[in-house]
Amino acid sequence: MPRTDAQGFVTGRSGAPLDRPLTLAVLGAGARGEAYAHLAAAHPDRARVVAVAEPRERVRTAFADRHHVAPESRYATWRELAARPRLADVAVVCLPDADHLPAATALADLGYQLLLEKPMATTEAGCEQVADAARRSGTALAVAFVLRHTPYTIALKKLITDGAVGDIVSVQHLEPVGHYHFAHSFVRGYWRRESESSFLLMTKSCHDIDWLGHVVGRSVTRVSSFGSLTHFRPDQAPPRAADRCVDCPLEPDCAYSAVRLYREGLRVGGPKEYFTRVVTGGELTEDAVAQALTEGPYGRCVYHADNDVVDHQVVNLEYEGGVTASFTLTAFTPMEDRRTKVFGTRGQLTGDGRHIEVYDFRSERTVRIDTAAAGSVADDHAGGDTGLFDDFVDALRSGETERITTGLDATLASHRVVFAAERARRTGTVVEL
């Protein structure tokens, strides 16, 4: 069966292997778009970037030059790119959340295969529209639920499938967002307001809900949830707190000081450097940080911002057969990896994103496994970016599109659970699926 359309671009059909690299159009040249472009550049015999859409001229030019994108294939917006005849096999959609729906549906209708950042869309109806467009166009779609693709998850899932703890009875899972990460992204930053992005469980932890379903291997039947915006609000502000950290007499002793976070980002590397790059547009200088703190949204007091998303939430899930899971999402933690306990009929499994401990009830012994030996954890998301990208590219190039593990049906089911959990939180009810 032919794998390409009349223009020579890959279709979503299964069939013969492709004998050339996949071509990619990257929509959004921020951190996520650059991550996938970097993975493509590492293996140009498998995939290469041929077009980009990015509104920030300096970022667009630097990205396009770095990845050798022709001048005529550089666009200021995704709509400009979508107005052209199809330019590539795959559209890598790394746009703001609100643009996922219109971009994904338009690009699917043009014939592009889609690698789509989570969430699919910011409403349940929007997710259904994306799914309908993919089905209508025969599009191979993968949503970037990178947690499924880490060496840690692969090892953990195999242990469970092989019966290391018997049958799963319940799961306890924690997403420790980290205090300064939460202040940056969900109090001062892009995801602070539902009207501009979506609710917190969707924007931060829809992949945790997906991951739990992947680990348990069953469908959710009932869900309840509780949570609120408890701390980051005006009535919690200490006396004399100013509207901006640079003007605040309490700043040196404040746990959420923007001054300390972004200035340390100039020196210490890691997540703090990443956050500093976000607020300065990539310019790691004292002057750029000072301007951002004085004029931009990231210099605001966490108690006097315009945020409205919750700062902590719990979700209780019941799966087919009576298996249960509890999920906690909270701002009030150090920056650390997720923590999980799986309680089975023959043992207990404990994981921290890298290490797995399996306690056996019969022998009363614990086996400890370091999953770093199973693959690289050097890239973002502990190897998940590489695993997701490689699996998607290999599925399309091999002609075996059914191998896409974060495909349409599984992804849509996970999103439905997230929307159900948020309905449960808002209504104070148990929602049945």
Automatic annotation (TrEMBL):
The superkingdom listed in its UniProt entry is: Bacteria
* Residue intervals of the Gfo/Idh/MocA-like oxidoreductase N-terminal domain: 24-145
Classification via InterPro entries: Gfo/Idh/MocA-like_OxRdtase_C, Gfo/Idh/MocA-like_OxRdtase_N, Gfo/Idh/MocA_Oxidoreductases, NAD(P)-bd_dom_sf
Q: Where is the Gfo/Idh/MocA-like oxidoreductase C-terminal domain?
A: 157-433
Gene3D superfamilies, per this entry?
Dihydrodipicolinate Reductase, domain 2, NAD(P)-binding Rossmann-like Domain
Q: List the PANTHER family.
A: BILIVERDIN REDUCTASE A, BINDING ROSSMANN FOLD OXIDOREDUCTASE, PUTATIVE (AFU_ORTHOLOGUE AFUA_3G11840)-RELATED
Which family does the entry's similarity section mention? Answer: Belongs to the Gfo/Idh/MocA family.
Name this polypeptide is given: Dehydrogenase
Q: Which organism is it from?
A: Kitasatospora paracochleata
